[in-house]
Amino acid sequence: MILEFEGKTPQIHPSAWVAPTAVIIGDVEIGPDSSVFYGAVLRGDVNKIRIGARTNIQDNSVLHVDEDAPCTLGDDVTVGHMALVHGTTVGDGTLVGMKSALLSGSVVGAGALIAAGAVVLEGQEIPDKSLAAGVPAKVRRELSDEQSASFIPHAGRYVELAKRHAGI
């Protein structure tokens, strides 16, 4: 469901795919070859949401904003099932684990891994190529170049999976 809010209508690239049960509201831009799966909600009501190319938002995830904290996801980002991404900036090629929460004003660097169930606190910064886990999330270690690069093909698989769901 694509909904206008206070004069702002979501802008979805023609090559992106949005599941019929996903809800996209207001000031939201979704980049090329990105996908939003079933039950996900992207609510750009009091600020903007920007999603780069080849990024996938998996089932039942929620992206929202604060008046002073937009939500920006780079290219090749994977947001796992049931994750909460709230007023956060996420760098290119990052994997956000299932049921994790990224709170307002947090910044997650490129090529990072946020472990399943982790909670990144308000204003917290996770460096590029870091593994962060726990409640609250703590950086456990730096990822190798090979480990960090492994998330990009995962995002690519979701580009292909979205095409299958779209019947292309």
TrEMBL record:
Entry keyword set: Transferase
Keyword Transferase annotated: yes
Name of the protein: Isoleucine patch superfamily enzyme, carbonic anhydrase/acetyltransferase
Organism lineage string: Bacteria, Bacillati, Actinomycetota, Actinomycetes, Mycobacteriales
Molecular function (Gene Ontology), one example: transferase activity
